[in-house]
Amino acid sequence: MYDYQNKPAKETSQIDSPASEISIHRRTVPIQDPGLEEERRNCLAILDEAISKLQNKNLSADTKNKIREIFEGSTSQSKIKTSRFKDELLLRFEYMRRRLSSARFFYNKDYSAYSPTTTAYVHSQETSNIAINITNYYIEQMGTPFNLMTLLHEVSHFSDIKRKPKWDKLYRESGTEDYFYASDPMTDDTQEYIQKSIAGLGKFYNKMNDIEYSKSIGRPKGLSRLKTALNNADHIALLALNLGKEKVKEAQYIDFSKRHPIVQRIIKEQQARREARRNAGN
Ligand SMILES: [Zn+2]
Description:
With about 280 residues, the chain is of the alpha+beta class. The protein has helices at about 20-25, 35-55, 60-70, 85-100, 110-115, 135-140, 145-155, 165-170, 190-200, 205-210, 210-215, 225-230, 235-245, 260-280, and strands at about 1-5, 30, 105-110, 120, 130-135. Bound molecules: zinc ion (ZN). Zinc ion (ZN) binds next to loops.
């Protein structure tokens, strides 16, 4: 789940959903839209680039730096040895790529009322017919780096990863968890978005020292800060973005009449609200 107000939230799943949530999920409809497909293409290009950088037997100095930028704040180690976990990251990104390329998008008209701060959510146990559920807030942010981050975040949650033994012992087959959210820097500039989000990850270290917080998010005892970060959705999504950012294509002009009727409606409502605010301000 991606919650733009940074409240730690447990992943929605069909298994532990309360009855009210299950009835809401029944009202989910498939949604196809050129803007959504553009975001998917951008995220696939980001993952391709991240994967190709991690496939090098010896990581370049630049790649190591980009990995350290994301993870060095999570540990007291002065220089993280990226060679110790680069295979796990590579495997993770390959799984994410596969999930994203076959995923279908869904929209739920009632979810935004049910959970107003949720941007998107997935059922992490799904291994086929992968669904990414988006809400009004997601549609309102289309074309921003925030949405690329959200998509990467969501696909990192899917499970069924066949890992190497060392990592299998730590994470089993599970996807990422929501241990910690990087706060949304609210900017449309990808580079600025990444830099400010990385700065926001700085709070992770102290948060993990808070025993009550660790308990509340279900962080396993004995899992180091670094290994917690390596299984945290926002760290993984931001790393992909950091490694693949040069592949992000600027938003293209999209003919409004070609947009999905739901997208048209939400964009029109958003414009009307802006207009009303402007008029109220005059
Ligand atoms: Zn999440």
